[in-house]
Amino acid sequence: MAAALAALVALTIALALGVTGLTPFGSSAEDEVPTADMPRIDHHDEALEQAREFRVRLATKGTPEQRKLARHVTAVVGIIFSKDGDVHIATDLTDSPQPGNAMDGGVDESPASALAWAYADWKESGSDATVNVYNAVGRRLASGVDL
Fold first, then answer.
1. In this predicted model, what pLDDT tens digit does every residue of 118-141 receive, in sequence order?
2. Which of 32, 64, 77, 105 has its CB 3.0 to 4.6 Å from that of 88, i.e. a possible disulfide?
3. String of b and e for 86-97 (b: at least 16 CB within 10 Å)?
4. What is the rounded CA–CA span in Å between residue 116 and residue 143?
5. Can you give the pLDDT at residue 31?
6. CA 44 to CA 128: how far, in whole Å?
Protein backbone atom coordinates (compact mmCIF):
# COMPACT_ATOMS: atom_id res chain seq x y z
CA MET A 1 0.00 0.00 0.00
CA ALA A 2 2.79 2.42 0.93
CA ALA A 3 4.65 1.61 -2.29
CA ALA A 4 1.52 2.27 -4.37
CA LEU A 5 0.95 5.58 -2.61
CA ALA A 6 4.60 6.58 -3.15
CA ALA A 7 4.32 5.70 -6.85
CA LEU A 8 1.12 7.73 -7.16
CA VAL A 9 2.73 10.75 -5.49
CA ALA A 10 5.81 10.45 -7.71
CA LEU A 11 3.66 10.21 -10.84
CA THR A 12 1.56 13.19 -9.75
CA ILE A 13 4.65 15.29 -9.14
CA ALA A 14 6.22 14.28 -12.44
CA LEU A 15 3.07 15.09 -14.37
CA ALA A 16 2.48 18.32 -12.46
CA LEU A 17 6.02 19.45 -13.24
CA GLY A 18 5.46 18.77 -16.90
CA VAL A 19 8.21 16.14 -17.16
CA THR A 20 6.24 14.37 -19.87
CA GLY A 21 6.12 17.44 -22.09
CA LEU A 22 2.33 17.27 -22.16
CA THR A 23 -0.18 19.38 -20.25
CA PRO A 24 0.05 19.25 -16.43
CA PHE A 25 -1.79 15.94 -16.09
CA GLY A 26 -0.75 14.17 -19.26
CA SER A 27 -3.43 15.05 -21.81
CA SER A 28 -2.93 16.44 -25.25
CA ALA A 29 -5.11 19.08 -26.84
CA GLU A 30 -6.88 16.46 -28.98
CA ASP A 31 -7.98 14.23 -26.07
CA GLU A 32 -11.61 13.88 -24.99
CA VAL A 33 -14.45 16.38 -25.07
CA PRO A 34 -13.32 20.02 -25.08
CA THR A 35 -13.78 21.30 -21.52
CA ALA A 36 -11.79 23.40 -19.10
CA ASP A 37 -8.37 22.04 -18.21
CA MET A 38 -6.82 21.83 -14.76
CA PRO A 39 -4.74 24.94 -14.19
CA ARG A 40 -0.99 24.42 -13.98
CA ILE A 41 0.17 23.69 -10.45
CA ASP A 42 2.83 26.14 -9.34
CA HIS A 43 2.92 25.24 -5.63
CA HIS A 44 3.48 21.48 -5.81
CA ASP A 45 4.26 20.84 -2.15
CA GLU A 46 1.21 22.76 -0.99
CA ALA A 47 -1.03 21.00 -3.52
CA LEU A 48 0.14 17.59 -2.33
CA GLU A 49 -0.22 18.58 1.33
CA GLN A 50 -3.74 19.92 0.77
CA ALA A 51 -4.64 16.67 -1.02
CA ARG A 52 -3.29 14.67 1.93
CA GLU A 53 -5.33 16.77 4.40
CA PHE A 54 -8.47 16.35 2.29
CA ARG A 55 -7.94 12.56 2.02
CA VAL A 56 -7.48 12.33 5.80
CA ARG A 57 -10.61 14.40 6.34
CA LEU A 58 -12.64 12.13 4.06
CA ALA A 59 -11.17 8.96 5.58
CA THR A 60 -11.98 10.03 9.13
CA LYS A 61 -15.21 12.04 8.82
CA GLY A 62 -16.58 11.22 5.38
CA THR A 63 -19.48 9.06 4.33
CA PRO A 64 -18.72 5.53 3.10
CA GLU A 65 -18.83 6.83 -0.51
CA GLN A 66 -16.47 9.71 0.34
CA ARG A 67 -14.04 7.32 2.06
CA LYS A 68 -13.88 5.28 -1.15
CA LEU A 69 -13.35 8.41 -3.24
CA ALA A 70 -10.59 9.77 -0.98
CA ARG A 71 -7.97 7.53 -2.58
CA HIS A 72 -8.58 9.19 -5.96
CA VAL A 73 -7.55 12.72 -4.85
CA THR A 74 -4.01 13.46 -6.10
CA ALA A 75 -3.61 17.23 -5.65
CA VAL A 76 -5.64 20.16 -4.35
CA VAL A 77 -4.93 23.74 -5.32
CA GLY A 78 -6.77 25.80 -2.74
CA ILE A 79 -7.87 29.40 -2.81
CA ILE A 80 -4.57 30.77 -1.46
CA PHE A 81 -2.45 29.24 -4.23
CA SER A 82 -5.00 29.36 -7.04
CA LYS A 83 -4.48 32.09 -9.63
CA ASP A 84 -8.24 32.43 -10.19
CA GLY A 85 -9.27 32.22 -6.52
CA ASP A 86 -11.08 28.90 -6.96
CA VAL A 87 -10.31 25.43 -5.62
CA HIS A 88 -9.06 22.82 -8.10
CA ILE A 89 -9.03 19.12 -7.16
CA ALA A 90 -6.96 16.78 -9.33
CA THR A 91 -7.93 13.11 -9.26
CA ASP A 92 -6.96 9.86 -10.92
CA LEU A 93 -10.58 9.30 -11.97
CA THR A 94 -10.97 8.21 -15.58
CA ASP A 95 -14.51 9.46 -16.08
CA SER A 96 -15.30 11.56 -19.11
CA PRO A 97 -16.49 15.12 -18.61
CA GLN A 98 -20.25 15.27 -18.13
CA PRO A 99 -22.48 17.97 -19.62
CA GLY A 100 -23.75 20.49 -17.09
CA ASN A 101 -22.61 21.04 -13.55
CA ALA A 102 -23.93 21.52 -10.05
CA MET A 103 -25.15 25.04 -10.84
CA ASP A 104 -27.40 24.13 -13.77
CA GLY A 105 -30.24 23.02 -11.51
CA GLY A 106 -29.79 19.34 -12.26
CA VAL A 107 -28.68 16.69 -9.84
CA ASP A 108 -25.15 15.51 -10.50
CA GLU A 109 -24.44 12.33 -8.56
CA SER A 110 -21.06 11.61 -10.12
CA PRO A 111 -18.00 10.76 -8.01
CA ALA A 112 -16.45 14.07 -9.07
CA SER A 113 -19.47 16.02 -7.86
CA ALA A 114 -19.42 14.10 -4.57
CA LEU A 115 -15.78 15.14 -4.08
CA ALA A 116 -16.61 18.78 -4.86
CA TRP A 117 -19.46 18.82 -2.35
CA ALA A 118 -17.33 17.07 0.28
CA TYR A 119 -14.61 19.70 -0.08
CA ALA A 120 -17.15 22.55 0.07
CA ASP A 121 -18.74 21.04 3.19
CA TRP A 122 -15.31 20.77 4.82
CA LYS A 123 -13.98 24.24 4.04
CA GLU A 124 -17.11 26.44 4.00
CA SER A 125 -15.12 29.63 3.51
CA GLY A 126 -18.03 31.91 2.68
CA SER A 127 -16.04 33.21 -0.28
CA ASP A 128 -17.16 33.33 -3.90
CA ALA A 129 -14.78 30.49 -4.76
CA THR A 130 -15.93 27.53 -6.82
CA VAL A 131 -14.74 23.96 -6.36
CA ASN A 132 -13.70 22.20 -9.59
CA VAL A 133 -12.77 18.51 -9.93
CA TYR A 134 -10.63 17.14 -12.77
CA ASN A 135 -10.01 13.66 -14.16
CA ALA A 136 -6.66 11.91 -14.58
CA VAL A 137 -5.83 13.84 -17.76
CA GLY A 138 -6.78 17.22 -16.32
CA ARG A 139 -10.23 17.67 -17.86
CA ARG A 140 -12.91 19.17 -15.65
CA LEU A 141 -15.51 16.65 -14.47
CA ALA A 142 -17.49 18.78 -12.05
CA SER A 143 -17.74 22.40 -11.07
CA GLY A 144 -20.11 24.92 -9.66
CA VAL A 145 -19.99 24.00 -5.98
CA ASP A 146 -19.47 27.26 -4.13
CA LEU A 147 -17.55 27.54 -0.88
1. 998 888 766 778 899 999 999 999
2. 77
3. bbbbbbebeeeb
4. 7
5. 38
6. 24
